[in-house]
From TrEMBL:
Taxonomy, superkingdom: Bacteria
Swiss-Prot/TrEMBL keywords: ATP-binding, Nucleotide-binding
Signal sequence region: none
Transmembrane segments: none
Native source species: Pseudomonas mosselii
Protein name: ATP-binding protein
Domain IstB-like ATP-binding: 125-244
Annotated Pfam families: IstB_IS21 (PF01695)
Length: 266
């Protein structure tokens, strides 16, 4: 049975349906929907929301509330689908703590990358976030993805280990997809951010898969963000000259995170 490859990478929020009472419509089905922080939020009567959106005066409070709720639901679903996890639910540029010039420089470069993304997108300009553990690389990458999702870009942040696991699972009989499907899907997103590159053992299959995805995006002139605890030289040793050079084409940017972990003081 064929599967939708996008469903493997872009998760939909969990939902629970339960019986509830509406003062207008009586007994109705209500829902609890997963939020970005992992909690569940009960929603009101869907019939009331539909009527407020389609029948209430556009200048009234009921319409405004229903429209705001619908927008919040779409935004949450889009961010969950883009790979933002509960750990980084609040990861924004404004929330990134800076105490040194190096940290301020990292923040400025990542913010600029997100805010000037149309320019970087047209150039296929990639971004490398490399260096020490606990310096906020995933925080800033998540903030980039969050910004692009708000602009309706097709963006995804995913750990390299998850990407590899999904591709390996295609080898199971009757999986319904191939690792080629994985490469084609990830190779066509507006932005792909691959986290924790270099944490794997670096088998021929793992490196071949990463090379195929990077090359696919390079050929399509699409930008990629690579996040790694390795230095740039260490990353070059891990993925090879060819892959790294393709990420540095067209003015590809690199930000080094060389200070001590911020987690110890968090």
């Amino acid at each position: 049975m064929a599967v939708q490859i996008s469903d493997l990478f872009h998760r939909t929020p969990a939902k629970r349906i339960f019986a509830g009472q509406c003062p207008v419509h009586g007994e109705v089905d209500k829902t609890e929907v997963e939020q970005l922080d992992g909690s569940m939020l009960a929603r009101g009567c869907k019939r009331c929301q539909w009527e407020a959106l389609h029948m209430a005066p556009r200048d009234g409070e009921a319409y405004a509330q229903a429209k705001a709720q619908a927008l919040a639901e779409r935004t949450t679903a889009a961010l969950i689908g883009a790979g933002i996890t509960p750990r980084f639910a609040e990861a924004t540029f404004d929330g990134y703590v800076t105490e040194s010039d190096q940290q301020r420089n990292a923040l400025a470069k990542c913010r600029d990358y997100a805010e000037q993304f149309p320019t970087h997108f047209r150039a296929g300009r990639s971004l490398l976030l490399t260096g020490n553990v606990g310096c906020g690389k995933t925080h800033l990458a998540s903030a980039i993805v969050r910004t692009l999702v708000a602009d309706r870009c097709r963006a995804l942040i995913i750990p390299a280990s998850d990407l590899i696991s999904i591709a390996r699972a295609s080898m199971v009989p009757n999986s319904g997809y191939t690792d080629r499907d994985v490469v084609l899907h990830l190779g066509g997103l507006d932005l792909l951010a691959i986290d924790e590159v270099g944490c794997q053992k670096g088998s021929d299959y793992e490196l071949g898969l990463l090379h195929a995805i990077i090359d696919r995006r390079y050929q399509a002139v699409l930008p990629t963000v690579l996040i790694s605890n390795l230095s740039v030289d260490g990353l070059r040793s891990y993925i090879g000259d060819r892959a790294l050079d393709r990420l540095r084409q067209n003015g590809g940017m690199a930000v080094g995170f060389t200070w001590s972990s911020m987690r110890a003081t968090a």
